Here is the input.
Amino acid sequence: MSEPGVASGRAGGDDSPARSSSSPDRVVSALADADDRVVEGALRPKRLSEVIGQNRVREQLSLVLEGALRRGRAPDHVLLSGPPGLGKTTLAMIISAELGAPLRITSGPAIERAGDLAAILSTLSEGEVVFIDEIHRLARPAEEMLYLAMEDFRVDVVIGKGPGATAIPLDIAPFTLVGATTRAGLLPAALRDRFGFTAHLDFYEPEELGIIVRRSAGLLGVALPEDGADEIAGRSRGTPRIANRLLRRVRDFAEVRGDGVVTRDCARAALELYEVDESGLDRLDLAVLGALVRRFGGGPVGLSTLAVAVGEEAETVEVVAEPFLVRAGLMARTPRGRVATPAAWQHLGLPVPRQAAWAGRAGRVVEWAGQEDSGGDGEATLFG
Here is the structure.
């Protein structure tokens, strides 16, 4: 029987409130499903030297761990932040492997009471690594207990209730906490300041994803020429989890409808079937972008109105589709609503109109005075 709050073999938390809507069915979702968790276990790098990309984080973390090993002490607590699918859980496992220490995995939502956390911490061996995924979702009582545990390696166990309650201090073995979060801004400052090393994971470049895809193909026994790997990497939205999922879908296509070799043409045909375009946009992304441009003239338009136009919940559009569209420079959020950028019109193969609202660098709604054709230059002037 597992301890309270300890997840058995399920790393990689899910913080998306729109998870129950359309995101599980999206081949380009950065959230992990059951199949992803099974496959990722075989594809994860085991050592820092095997990690591809995240060069600055890798070098900094290497110094932290090497210094701790030389001193014979547990390293500082580590906080990893960044969007889902970039490798926070993998790095936690690598930290454990590099230190030669056991790893205890749990998640913020799983620790509902301070007693759940005390049950985990009180059974740790010296030097053990504790990984808490989605740490910003810890219950407040557990969070306050964690403050003392991180600083003084001690927890106060409360016996009884009311005025007669007694706090008994309990020393715990020195340990290293690795916290992961997709929303670092929700972490209380008191908790964030107790981490000695903080790292933010960035999206990967297509070249790095190409290397990752080729490595995964080798482990999975997939015949993947370089042009096929580049095609998959370019549609993976900068996220290794998506790249590995697309590789598996393309492999299925190649084995069923081809000769098993994932060439560029094979990858294109497969991803067209799965409705993933050359920029990594899927059906929902294109529906949102198309409604914004074709029905509302590029905006500004409110979130609720846009959601009704594509037949989705507002929360789904905001959480699932918008982040990538904004990051790709196809949409902007402004005080007056969502607006399409000139790149959105061009992506849909439409000419940029002479007057289309878009967001300038200062976040203001401005008017795009462009050419009639999509390739023309233009200048921005204040709108309204």
Q: What stands out?
A: The two ends are 64 Å apart (CA to CA). The domain at 283-382 is CATH 1.10.10.10 (Arc Repressor Mutant, subunit A). DSSP finds 14 helices and twelve strands in the chain.
